Amino acid sequence: MPRRDHEPPAPHATLPRAARRSAVLAVAVALALAGCSAAVDAPAPAAVPDLSSAAPGAAPEAPSEPADGLDGVDADLAARFESARAAAAAEDVELRITSGKRTEEEQQRLVDEAVAEHGVPEAYRWVLPPETSAHVQGLAIDVGATQGAYWLAEHGLEFGLCQTYANEVWHFEELPDGADTCPEQHPDSSWGW
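Request: output the structure for the sequence above.
Response:
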């Protein structure tokens, strides 16, 4: 199993107090589930994502995936992310893709690993089956580093990007067509089972 680099949670100071508490709690739960306390300060190889891979279902980038992580991702979603990445960089915030488009086989492997490690129903809170996963459709991205994920949680709407799950600060999808606000977040992935 690859080593994973985990940054301590650093909620963006301008997030509402309740959102910061929820995000910090989600990060703490994800870290506890992953049992990754020893890897907190260890540098990761370039292809291994940060905190977003701590939860079951958040996959490291495949070695064949391009450095930008946008191969196979919906073109509009990719363009919105690139605009957000440029704006984040202008504020000295690193924003990168940790997981983009996944094959059905990759998604099923994540489901199987999460179920084997955490059992049902806990695994279902973190990973969807291939038939309901937006990653398989190329319609979702997971982002890092931790500060970047919090930055995008605060600024995503400006770029038409929405955090979809309350327990996954790193998971973003496009703002639905015609909408001017993000839909209410799902508490977790269990809705799709």
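The chain has one domain: 17-192.
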